[in-house]
Amino acid sequence: MAPPSHCYISNGAPQNGVVVPVETGTLPPQDSHLLDPDEFRRQGHQVIDFIADYYARMGEYPVHPSVNPGFLRRELPADAPSRPERDAFDAALRDVRDLILPGLTHWQSPRHFAHFPASSSTVGALGEALTAGINVVPFTWAASPAATELEMVVVDWLGKALHLPESLMFCGGGGGTLLGTTCEAILCALVAARDRKLADIGSRRIGDLVVYCSDQTHFAFRKAAHIAGIHRDNCREIATCRDDMFALSPAELHAAMQADVDAGLAPLFLCATVGTTQTTAVDPIRELSAVAAAHGAWVHVDAAYAGSALVCPEFRHVIDGVEAVDSFSTNAHKWLLANNDCCALWVMRPSLLAAALRTEQEYILKDAAAEGHDVVDYKDWSVTLTRRFRALKVWLVLRCYGVEGLRAHVRAHMSMAASFESMVRADARFEVTATRQFALVCFRLRSPEKLGGEETANELNRRLLEEVNATGSGPYMSSAMVGGIYMLRCAVGSTLTEERHVREAWKVLQDQAASLLRKMEIDN
Amino acid sequence: MAPPSHCYISNGAPQNGVVVPVETGTLPPQDSHLLDPDEFRRQGHQVIDFIADYYARMGEYPVHPSVNPGFLRRELPADAPSRPERDAFDAALRDVRDLILPGLTHWQSPRHFAHFPASSSTVGALGEALTAGINVVPFTWAASPAATELEMVVVDWLGKALHLPESLMFCGGGGGTLLGTTCEAILCALVAARDRKLADIGSRRIGDLVVYCSDQTHFAFRKAAHIAGIHRDNCREIATCRDDMFALSPAELHAAMQADVDAGLAPLFLCATVGTTQTTAVDPIRELSAVAAAHGAWVHVDAAYAGSALVCPEFRHVIDGVEAVDSFSTNAHKWLLANNDCCALWVMRPSLLAAALRTEQEYILKDAAAEGHDVVDYKDWSVTLTRRFRALKVWLVLRCYGVEGLRAHVRAHMSMAASFESMVRADARFEVTATRQFALVCFRLRSPEKLGGEETANELNRRLLEEVNATGSGPYMSSAMVGGIYMLRCAVGSTLTEERHVREAWKVLQDQAASLLRKMEIDN
């Protein structure tokens, strides 16, 4: 790693051993300079070239850096500079290149197969840049009318593109919004559901409310429930099994809800998942919604990852019955080319959301034009008041790639994942551990009988993942632990990933597996 | 407003009366094209020029558009295009210019004096662009080590620049994080406080917890408390008065807490404000903290707006006693040149935050290098798991402007606000309605006796604000209602605002006031 170029001034103290006399610092910029169009142009073109160069060299970086905790903190001064150094922006960009980029995990690398993708596109990235440049705060309709209206248009566009029912869209009496993350989306839906239920059963009975999910549901749900004041004992994580492809069982849900009712508790909320984080399991929405409806519980569908796949009609079946749900969310930043962050939330009854999250104060400017109209003030649809103009990015992505473009994008990854799966299946040393539903392949190395078979399988695969991820030039993957089985996850979804990267990843896996098995046999 | 240029294809349906045959649509882009460096360069340079042109023409836009609800929704097609039109990106940028910009409220206008500023800088905007381009998801240390470490460095830099005590920084055993908004920051602190208190008094007593603020505290606090499950009856809004400059009274707080204790309730949390939204009132932190400590309540300081002023040592006194508080937050996107969004939260005991918000699941990759180290996983410090690399922007702003640059920025606005205040005071028809503490001036037009004096003053000022905001070429301001008095707010803080804009704004106010008074006298 290159030495830091920080020789700027910080309270006159020596930085990294270099004492810099105060007078070499440039004067602080005049205020008028801070948003100067020509300065913006000069620096902006540098930034664009910087990012383009980064994309061009993406394949050369190890996906994950080989660094230890503290590696960067130790390199940087303890204080911000009093005055900027000479050519501070140029120097800072050099530091981003030489100090920061080498310490990042490169989520855009074509060899990033870990977690779920954080899919980027040129249009998504530039949509964010535009939003930052325009820098409006559309917390009410009046605070930036076009931003609110574009968001209303875009959530309907996106909802239709994903084949959601009109009841969840503005055009059908529902509506949507663009938040940051799934946890926020679930929290908002949950608070709306909670308030409705407490209005019904008595506002002092928060301790009696019970929420439901499966043991595969993302922790974001338990976190949201905890934040919303649901008692930790009142979160039912219903066990799933491999025979059911790790889907939540409606019969088990019914039993759990009935037991709670019998105990004097109040079923509040079901978080069903389409495409779980560990294995992309799909909960049966229609049947689960019927059970929840019988107990007066709100149904939210978390399709954080797999929601993007709904852009392809061939996947519509995974949300069969979605007409009955109260809310639905998906992360457009995961697999739909809208850079981080962007979670779309749709609700069937926006008035319940607003009733729970509304704020009113005099300093909120009312617009005379909005009087008498039922305008949407998005501050009443989310945790936050301040918000970003995320709609611009999503609108640009839909405009510039079209629904067909998004389909092609998703299908390309599905096809690569299918290839990877075939390669796993063709090698008898490995097995596919969960039925592939989207572009995630869960698999593991079988442990040979002489090495201890099942008892050592988990340890073997842990070591395999460590070895593979340590190659630097190879793929970067993550793992899941489901039903006691440790498995590797290959999530195809980086925009830059091509068929060859998938083949190369498999080759590295095979080589590391062979080497690991050899080593263990010798050790044995 | 120019007609929309949307003649792209959407399910073959006519758009705006123009039927476009399917074959004229361009083919969806190949996946490899979606993050192509050359394409990014081409589109990126366009976007930079677009934003620079916007800044150059900023003064020409009316700050607030004259539009009616539905104006944009009616102009746009009901569906996203199936395939992109030819030169879709260029066409979309034209639509941003011709359709969207004219419908926005221009927060960067030098004549935007409403709400609080959303201060932009070239470096802040480009920091966001860089973050979007790099597009990493630093939810754990391992998920992008340099991003986590830079955030740890930057919150300490910022805390020191703002003269916060080391007990709130990593270097002093505390620590900070960069979130989106104040409401999130308060919610996180509140959940940490709630869990600590419930561990103490019994986990089933959430209904007994009471939170405290003043009648001037931003609604974000009540919203956060409501989300966290605090009963609406258990939020004490303590009345303030003009004689105390609308500050929260420690004696009143003590009385309220004691009454709750006597009633068997448990004081949980005080949200003190430094720089309230309506009049920038400053709550006395030292005295309030002593009262809260005596009752075991957590103290959070919300300095959303005025926190930025702490970069100037002459304002340090407004947080006297801050060493005793549990948490502190400020919005760097309001007045510190870090574009929307960026709220810095510091806490004295990070372990309490993590205990309340931690998540653990197998798919979260552990890094071998992090084993045995006490690394910060920022997902455990916030509502969300997915998060943006906001530290990059703040680091760039501090590097490129320096602490002195930020001071000059704040002081320039202070000085302009002082000028505005002097002009108000010099005109006997007007009065300053709240002591100016930072760069916000609260004022009103006095109602002449013959028009009804006090009884009509509020109505008169409402009309004045409407008239001023309707001029289009004039300033855009907002209002407050405090102690029954309706006042106008002139918040100086847009980066592009210069002394002349403040003088021009005052001239428009005087002219509109004269005209309004004339009109009312005639009507009388």
TrEMBL record, chains A, B:
Entry keyword annotation includes Lipid metabolism: no
Cofactors required: pyridoxal 5'-phosphate
Gene3D superfamilies the UniProt entry points to: Aspartate Aminotransferase, domain 1, dopa decarboxylase, N-terminal domain, Type I PLP-dependent aspartate aminotransferase-like (Major domain)
Single GO MF annotation: pyridoxal phosphate binding
One Pfam family per UniProt: Pyridoxal_deC
Modified residues (N6-(pyridoxal phosphate)lysine): K334
Record bears the keyword Lyase: yes
Keyword field: Decarboxylase, Lyase, Pyridoxal phosphate
Biological process, per Gene Ontology: amino acid metabolic process; carboxylic acid metabolic process; phenol-containing compound biosynthetic process; primary amino compound biosynthetic process
An example Gene Ontology CC term for this record: cytoplasm
Family, per entry: Belongs to the group II decarboxylase family.
Name this protein carries in UniProt: Tyrosine decarboxylase
